[in-house]
Amino acid sequence: DAGVHSKAWYAATCDRKMAEDALYRSNKDGSFLIRKSSGQDSRQPYTLVVFYNRRVYNIPIRFIQSTRQYALGREKCGEERFDSVAEIVENHQHTSLVLIDSQNNTKDSTKLKHVVRVS
């Protein structure tokens, strides 16, 4: 269990468009929520959706079968791994999360500050 179901930031029934719309409405840097990933792939069960600098970032949350842990984004050397999705959120409420914009090849960073609820 990823530890998501009782959390305020978990939008269980929310798709990508609903998540992005909710974050654009919030219009606050560091607004975020976690939704189920569109693909329903067991190796990438969730997506962290973050608003920063008038943009919405969809960051995949991977499940690493061998260690039964979670990590953000594409696999990389020395990546941070967490025992639950809740630990990822708690960590990035204190530590900046790097946001990579692959279209414009830019990097930003923000902390997870404002929980967005999807109505």
Automatic annotation (TrEMBL):
What highest taxon heads this organism's lineage? Eukaryota
Keyword Metal-binding annotated: no
- Name of the protein in question: BLNK protein
Q: Which GO terms describe its biological process?
A: cell surface receptor protein tyrosine kinase signaling pathway; intracellular signal transduction
Q: Which gene name belongs to this protein? A: Blnk
Q: Name one Pfam family in it.
A: SH2
**Gene Ontology cellular-component annotations:** cytoplasm
Which CDD domains does the protein's record reference? SH2_BLNK_SLP-76 (cd09929)
Query: Which keywords are on file for this protein?
Result: SH2 domain
